[in-house]
Amino acid sequence: MKEIDLQSLENYLQQAFGEQAKLTGIGEIGSLEEQGMKDFGYGKPLLVHFELNGKPNSFVLSTMKGDKYGHQFYWDRAAILMFQYDCAARMDKHVKPMGLGYIDSRGRLIPVKEPKEFFLLTEKVEGHDYFLDLERMRKGDVREEDFSLAKEFARWLAKVHSVKKKDEDLYLRRIRDLIGHSECIWGLIDAYPYPYEHFTPEEFQKLEKRLIDWRWKFRKFTHRLSAVHGDFHPWNVLVRDNLDFSVLDRSRGEWGEPADDVATMSCNYLLFGLYDQPKLSGPFEKLYLTFWEEYLSITNDKEILKLIAPFYVFRGLVIASPEWYPNHPVEVRKGLFRFIQNVLEDENFDYMKINKYME
């Protein structure tokens, strides 16, 4: 565990409370025995003594350790501490928060003062949104490079997914999140209008119950934990000439099930194809098959066909959503719901015969 030197702690006090703050000692919570002015590692609460304008003060410095209960990453733990900082002050008799901050890679304690919202800066890259290519294809302008680009996407995903990690708990967390997270299946279902005219509450309930059976299937596949993008769809890809592209908005963590990324992109080929017919055909069927076949030819990942169905349900619910995609014709939305219902009924997804899931 990284050591935090006492000078860093005193620097934090001066940034948070003013230059007159002076560190006088630290102690363990529990025994409260004085540890003296020695370095310490973070991970458990510590009692910090300091003087401010000559008057003695103290506070408890707390951090969180990672665990398998959804706290594997520092941003998980940050969310918990932010919640405590924001809410504790509004509860009668609760101990009052005195400060919020983070520990950087050098062990320095950096205060975060009066946070309300956070922001992110990223580089600006050139290119056009990939969904514009799909709209062009819908209008009849289909080019050979469209299929070459689908192959390039598949090759890129195969390379990303080739990086593996052994962590059974993290794999199971990602499956748990797929089904129960507010941004994923359960949350999407709750966000639909109630009742919804194109998919009844009874149909949603049946879908949820079926997914519980699928959740237990994944316990046999924890060895598949891989690097993933997590939101690889046509609105998150910027395309340039010569099959060059950049991706945006990596989501839901660095690790997961490869089927997530494969389902996300290929499901959108189905979406655009449904605008012309109630099944997948023509250039979008060719695009879909090109993408799948290139991915499988590189990875030889036959297990993915055993696991992809719930990921198709998730992505199908996204692109069928009247909130996220309000302008779909009714038949497009109904086609997506047919796919969502039928895809869970096969133990192995038959990617070559996707239209049997459209019946």
TrEMBL record:
This protein's UniProt keywords: Transferase
Domain Aminoglycoside phosphotransferase: 118-266
One Pfam family per UniProt: APH
Superkingdom of origin: Bacteria
GO-annotated molecular function: transferase activity
Name of the featured protein: Phosphotransferase enzyme family protein
